[in-house]
């Protein structure tokens, strides 16, 4: 309601700006137009005289200049007479007043009602933060953590929390710094060293650098069962060209992996690639891995995937997002959810043929039914 | 001087200046423009070494080598053909393997393209127009997504990070 | 600091919608402004003409209100506004939230039209003593331009579009745009571009009224000078930004975006000179009118070629057909309309005063010829590739070599002639007398060049020549002031008093020309620049011109919204520490791509410029280092030029036109 009062006042001000001059008594003299000219040329004459007095121009030049200016002054006066007086008729004034009084509000309101959103109030972020804190987005949460860490750089827990977030955003250098800080502040832990190594690998575009290897070695020294660290150690051997060692390490891991887990397929591929035979998993080891996968880390990852899901539900035209979501659910071992996401993505991308093709290609690749 | 002579002098000098300007523009246009070529065109049309050209395409994956004193070698590809490029100097911030790039320079007798300036994608939304169009023509257009976005799901389970 | 301050606004405040409505009202008022005063001027009805000024003020008020509302939405991170979502981020520092308003298409259009309304308001404010019909026509034209852009904004680029449900975070955090230079560059540039709209409106108004004379010239001149001064500053700011932010060490790249601002500047420079001829001698009328139309047309083309993306790609223009066609329509209407009106009405203009070829007028005609030719060269070089691509599909690029080879031969003769033209008398000049008066300045400039050449024997030849040219411009201006104040036998006190009594426009001219000389010296000195590329380890040193640069350490550190790996470099002259620079690579929050941040150390008027190319494993960094002696002269000269323009426009004579009863008493005490 207040909005409409404000808008009405604004319209009133605009109408007044046009009506007011129309209503004013006009005191314009017919000669007013030439008065400016006269003032100008008289000033020019005075200026020439001053210049001549001060010797800035020669007297003969000054004389011709004066004659010229005087001639123009006369010409201007003649023109003024010829043009005739200014007029002001009530009819025209009335027409203009109608335009201001009726046309102006009509045009403004028509356009505004078509384009505007009078029902939506302002939503400054500060006010919304207080009202809607639970729905904080990743970016906002990150901004808060970063702000906090900038003030308390020695908060090891904070560093440890922010590390995986950086990893998920592809900011590997920041992730490495965060994990290193966590180790420095909180001390050794197999998982911290493992995460640090992972960040280092990611930063080197997948190369297990010497630094990363040191990290994994430290992690394995603390806990020899760590799957990821062992995987990367195998990868390092492979990258070094030590096929025999890589094969034995991979085979060892593949033997422990539970059947059907995505990691199993990949390990089998690796083993096959290196010329070995994929071993059958032993029940115990499979249990161990399954247990590990349900660690804190997975919870965080699931949270991230869920937020991606929520975002796509709101804004569905993001092909990359849908591809990522489907792939993530498959990787997390939730084929139902992946299938569901796949179906929703296909619906959301109804108008984007290329996007849908890509999604369907992924569906075929991941053997999702209905693709 | 009469009124007419004055006017003729003015018009004459004006025409002289304009003629000189027009001559300069035309001469320099024919002399200094550079043609934009894709690696395929470069290979197929056959250019004399030393002719100034502008080439564009993607930096071919796995071809970037850094030498001493900020010399770099890489190949520019339009996914059909590729051309080796050498360049010494500061690479733009956004220069990456697999990203669009435009290089000015000349072909060497060895067949290598010696660049004296290299431009990468100007920002994340912008690709040098020649590159975008050349790739579009070949049906290879694809929005190269941000590395961060691509990396997100891969970072999830250990084994999804293939590395090599 | 990064957190938005809590506001006292209630939860249901409607600033955004009020701003949106203000924009609509500004459109309605611009339509009133377009038609009613023009109708009044046509029918000589003073009541209708009287609407012009209040309507212009009101239009300015509502445009400013709309702009303010959008700014508030940015400052408060109101993510229910689509434009804010796309171009802002809650973690941006406050200053960049504000500059974010015009860092995007919609916001920059709003800024553009707000400045247009500002100029209309200023003309209305200063126009109390202008001939009423001319004022009515001028404001009508200004209103018409504004109406076109208000419509364009509302229909195709509405910054007040809302989004529901509102996201909680914005997407706009382009670190390269977070820079003070870039933040104030667009407003300055727009003040220049849009300022020429006043000259355009005056030209069209005069053509409609059918009356153009010295009085017209005197009224339009201050506006043109103002626009020119802002454009000069805007271009200089843009050039300096590119110099330190892009990391290539150059100061002008002949990039289409830069050329787009150079073209109106060249036309505007020609215009401020031809207006002088018109004011003093009532000559060159037709040409001045044409230049007024062209200067603003080039401004329009400049803004919209850049904004529409047509320079980046002909095809991106077509990607948003509504906007592209709308812009094209506006360009065709105003440029084509202006030129058609010109072709139709120009023949009725009376011929003005006569002058000999060797005279101040003759020199200014030559100035205009060279400037227009240079402008045409830039125009052709910038648009030829687009035209060729549109017609034949062939792709070429016209780069710096073309512009250097074409622009320099057209500007160097002009620069050589500046001091001569400045000293020639009006109407009929005396070359011999000019030669005598300038002999001292010429001899000194030549001596300067020779001394510089002798000192830097092995250096490039172009540099001393350029320095000589710059000195010639500066000394020529000084000698002009001296000659106008000096008479044989006069004492120093008399000379000084007379110099102080010279009109401000004379000082302004001299200052602007001297500023040009300063810029020329700065450009010439770039030939002595030193560039080094090297990979350095901590502790290593290398020579850079007169200095030694040592890499002290490579350190990581944190900024407000970025992380940085910085190379700490110490610059020494022998044993003396001159200063330190800390170039680095920055990674901004939410981005994976690092950006380079150059390090600058100003030593006198020269600068050491360092940027980091590559951070390598093991603590070594690839760096690019420059020593650029006197480089600041380039931008300093531009500031001096702009100051000259402002000084000239503040000349009290520019305000004449007030009725005699006011002007006369004011003139006496000023003596």
Automatic annotation (TrEMBL), chain A:
It is found in: Cell envelope. One of its GO terms (biological process) is cytochrome complex assembly. Signal peptide: none annotated. NCBIfam families: cytochro_ccmI. This is C-type cytochrome biogenesis protein CcmI. InterPro entries: C-type_cytochrome_biogenesis, Cyt_c_biogenesis_CcmI, TPR-like_helical_dom_sf. It comes from Alsobacter soli. PANTHER family: CYTOCHROME C-TYPE BIOGENESIS PROTEIN CCMH (PTHR47870). It comes from the Bacteria. Keywords: Cytochrome c-type biogenesis. The gene is ccmI. One of its GO terms (cellular component) is plasma membrane. The keyword Flavoprotein does not apply.
UniProtKB/TrEMBL annotation, chain B:
Gene3D superfamilies: Nucleic acid-binding proteins. It is a single-pass type II membrane protein. GO terms for molecular function: heme binding; metal ion binding. It is found in: Cell inner membrane; Cell membrane. GO terms for cellular component: plasma membrane. GO terms for biological process: cytochrome complex assembly; protein-heme linkage. It comes from the Bacteria. Residues 151-164 have a biased composition (Low complexity). Heme binds at residues 122, 126. Heme chaperone required for the biogenesis of c-type cytochromes. Transiently binds heme delivered by CcmC and transfers the heme to apo-cytochromes in a process facilitated by CcmF and CcmH. HAMAP family: CcmE. This is Cytochrome c-type biogenesis protein CcmE. It comes from Alsobacter soli. The gene is ccmE.
């Amino acid at each position: 309601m207040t909005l409409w009062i404000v808008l009405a006042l604004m319209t009133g001000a605009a109408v007044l700006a046009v009506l007011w001059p129309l209503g004013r008594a006009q005191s314009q003299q017919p000669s007013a137009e030439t008065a400016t000219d006269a003032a100008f040329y008289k000033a020019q004459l005075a200026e020439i005289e001053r210049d001549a007095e001060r010797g800035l121009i020669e007297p003969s030049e000054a004389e011709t200049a004066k004659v010229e200016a005087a001639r123009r002054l006369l010409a201007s006066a003649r023109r003024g007479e010829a043009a005739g007086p200014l007029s002001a008729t009530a009819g025209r004034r009335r027409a203009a007043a109608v335009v201001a009084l009726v046309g102006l509000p009509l045009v403004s309101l028509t356009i505004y009602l078509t384009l505007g959103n009078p029902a939506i109030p302002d939503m400054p972020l500060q006010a919304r933060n207080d009202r809607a804190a639970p729905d904080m987005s990743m970016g906002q949460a990150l901004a808060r953590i970063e702000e906090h860490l900038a003030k308390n750089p020695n908060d090891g827990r904070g560093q440890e929390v922010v590390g995986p977030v950086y990893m998920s955003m592809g900011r590997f250098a920041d992730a490495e710094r965060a994990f290193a800080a966590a180790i420095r502040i909180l001390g050794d832990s197999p998982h911290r060293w493992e995460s640090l190594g992972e960040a280092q690998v990611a930063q080197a575009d997948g190369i297990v650098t010497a630094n990363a290897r040191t990290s994994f070695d430290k992690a394995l020294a603390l806990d020899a069962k760590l799957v990821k660290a062992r995987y990367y150690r195998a990868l390092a051997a492979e990258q070094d060209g030590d096929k025999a060692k890589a094969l034995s390490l991979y085979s060892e891991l593949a033997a422990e992996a539970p059947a059907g887990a995505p990691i199993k397929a990949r390990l089998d591929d690796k083993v096959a690639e290196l010329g070995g035979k994929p071993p059958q998993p032993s029940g115990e080891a499979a249990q161990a891995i399954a247990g590990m996968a349900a660690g804190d880390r997975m919870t965080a990852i699931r949270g991230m995937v869920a937020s991606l899901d929520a975002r796509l539900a709101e804004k569905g035209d993001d092909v990359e997002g849908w591809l990522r979501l489907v792939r993530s659910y498959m990787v997390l071992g939730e084929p139902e959810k992946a299938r569901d996401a796949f179906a929703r993505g296909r619906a959301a991308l109804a108008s984007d043929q290329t996007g849908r093709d890509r999604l369907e290609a992924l569906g075929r690749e991941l053997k999702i039914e209905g693709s | 001087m009469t009124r007419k002579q004055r006017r003729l002098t003015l018009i004459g000098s004006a025409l002289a200046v304009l003629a000189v300007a027009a001559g300069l523009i035309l001469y320099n246009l024919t002399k200094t423009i550079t043609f934009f070529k894709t690696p395929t065109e470069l290979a197929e049309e056959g250019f004399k070494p030393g002719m100034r050209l502008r080439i564009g395409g993607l930096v071919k994956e796995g071809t970037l080598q850094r030498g001493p004193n900020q010399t770099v070698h890489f190949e520019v590809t339009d996914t059909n053909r590729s051309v080796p490029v050498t360049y010494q100097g500061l690479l733009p911030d956004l220069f990456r393997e697999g990203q669009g790039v435009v290089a000015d320079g000349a072909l060497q007798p060895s067949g290598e393209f010696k660049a004296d300036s290299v431009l990468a994608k100007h920002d994340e939304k912008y690709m040098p127009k020649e590159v975008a169009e050349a790739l579009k023509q070949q049906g290879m257009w694809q929005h190269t997504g941000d590395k961060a976005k691509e990396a997100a799901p891969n970072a999830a389970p250990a084994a999804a990070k293939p590395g090599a | 600091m990064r957190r938005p301050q809590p506001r006292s606004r209630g939860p249901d405040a409607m600033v955004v919608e009020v701003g949106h409505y203000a924009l609509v009202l500004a459109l309605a008022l611009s339509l009133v402004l377009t038609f009613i005063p023009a109708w009044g001027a046509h029918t000589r009805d003073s009541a209708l003409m009287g609407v012009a000024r209040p309507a212009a003020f009101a239009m300015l008020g509502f445009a400013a209100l709309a702009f303010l509302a959008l700014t508030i939405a940015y400052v408060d991170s109101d993510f229910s506004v689509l434009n804010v979502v796309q171009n802002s981020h809650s973690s941006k520092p406050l200053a960049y939230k504000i500059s974010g308003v015009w860092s995007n298409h919609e916001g920059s259009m709003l800024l553009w039209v707000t400045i247009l309304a500002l100029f209309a308001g200023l003309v209305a404010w200063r126009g109390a003593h202008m001939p009423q019909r001319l004022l009515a026509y001028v404001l009508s034209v200004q209103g018409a331009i504004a109406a076109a852009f208000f419509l364009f904004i509302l229909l195709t680029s509405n910054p007040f579009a809302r989004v529901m449900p509102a996201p909680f975070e914005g997407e706009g955090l382009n670190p390269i745009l977070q820079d003070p230079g870039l933040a104030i560059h667009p407003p300055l540039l727009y003040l220049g571009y849009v300022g020429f709209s006043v000259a355009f409106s005056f030209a069209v108004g005069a053509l409609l009224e059918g009356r153009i004379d010295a009085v017209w010239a005197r009224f339009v001149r201050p506006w043109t000078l103002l626009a020119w001064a802002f454009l000069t500053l805007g271009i200089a700011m843009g050039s300096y930004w590119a110099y330190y932010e892009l990391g290539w060490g150059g100061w002008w790249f002949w990039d289409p975006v830069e050329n787009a601002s150079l073209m109106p500047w060249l036309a505007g420079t020609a215009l401020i000179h031809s207006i002088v001829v018109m004011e003093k001698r009532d000559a060159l009328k037709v040409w001045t009118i044409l230049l007024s139309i062209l200067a603003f047309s080039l401004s329009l083309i400049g803004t919209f070629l850049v904004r529409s993306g047509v320079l980046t790609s002909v095809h991106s223009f077509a990607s948003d057909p509504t906007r592209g066609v709308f812009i094209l329509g506006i360009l065709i209407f105003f440029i084509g309309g202006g030129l058609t009106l010109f072709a139709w009405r120009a023949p009725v203009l009376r011929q003005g005063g006569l002058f000999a070829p060797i005279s101040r007028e003759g020199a200014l005609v030559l100035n205009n010829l060279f400037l227009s030719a240079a402008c045409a060269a830039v125009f052709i070089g910038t648009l030829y590739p687009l035209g060729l691509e549109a017609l034949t599909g062939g792709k070429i690029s016209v780069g710096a070599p073309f512009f250097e080879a074409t622009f320099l031969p057209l500007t160097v003769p002009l620069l050589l002639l500046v001091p001569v033209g400045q000293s020639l008398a009006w109407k009929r000049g005396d070359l011999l007398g000019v030669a005598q008066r300038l002999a001292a300045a010429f001899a000194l400039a030549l001596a300067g060049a020779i001394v510089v050449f002798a000192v830097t024997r092995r250096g490039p030849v172009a540099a001393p020549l350029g320095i000589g040219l710059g000195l010639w411009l500066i000394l020529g201006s000084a000698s002009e002031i001296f000659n106008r104040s000096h008479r044989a036998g006069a004492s120093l006190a008399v000379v000084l008093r007379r110099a102080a009594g010279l009109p401000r426009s004379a000082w302004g001219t001299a200052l602007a020309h001297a500023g040009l000389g300063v810029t020329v010296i700065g450009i010439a000195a770039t030939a002595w620049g030193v560039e080094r590329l090297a990979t350095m380890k901590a502790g290593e040193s290398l020579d850079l011109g007169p200095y030694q640069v040592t890499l002290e350490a490579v350190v990581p550190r944190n900024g407000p919204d970025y992380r940085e790996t910085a190379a700490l470099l110490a610059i020494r002259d022998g044993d003396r520490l001159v200063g330190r620079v800390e170039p680095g690579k920055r990674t901004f929050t939410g981005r994976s791509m690092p950006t380079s941040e150059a390090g600058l150390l100003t030593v006198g008027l020269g600068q050491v410029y360092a940027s980091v190319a590559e951070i390598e494993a093991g603590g070594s960094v690839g760096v690019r280092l420059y020593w650029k002696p006197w480089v600041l002269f380039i931008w300093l000269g531009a500031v001096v030029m702009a100051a000259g323009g402002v000084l000239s426009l503040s000349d009290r004579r520019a305000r004449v036109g007030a009725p005699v009863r006011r002007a006369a008493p004011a003139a006496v005490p000023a003596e």
